[in-house]
Amino acid sequence: xxxxxxxxxxxxxxxxxxxxxxxxxxxxxxxxxxxxxxxxxxxxxxxxxxxxxxxxxxxxxxxxxxxxxxxxxxxxxxxxxxxxxxxxxxxxxxxxxxxxxxxxxxxxxxxxxxxxxxxxxxxxxxxxxxxxxxxxxxxxxxxxxxxxxxxxxxxxxxxxxxxx
Length: 164
Fold this sequence. Notes:
Layout: H1 3-15, H2 21-31, H3 35-46, H4 67-77, H5 96-105, H6 111-129, H7 131-139, H8 143-163
Helix pairs in contact: 1-2, 2-3, 2-6, 3-8, 5-6, 6-7, 7-8
């Protein structure tokens, strides 16, 4: 698809509240996931915000992710997450090694690298497990992850309808 088409999709997505619209489109294409799924995932995880999550552990609800806050979080988290882990950024990367992988790409606190790792990871889960189970695995396992997959898939349909 051409850049003109992607820009038109991004404008439509922004009308529906999506920050990082062009980044989501470009990375979804690069990672090989449906664009609508990219929007659904980021909406589900953070409502298109670069924020810390609300898990009952360190940095819960700490607001906007900045480099300084992220570095303080990471120091408390420790090299293997023993100090506690929290969702970070638009894709809410929670597991320490996922954050570290996004850091290798340029920084988990930066939406570009946060989304890049998340979409590549989601694509690998979908390839290994299929669409629904891959989405569930992005969240974890068990009934909560199954409910998560249902929610993301409902959002994906909504985004597909808006974008097509």
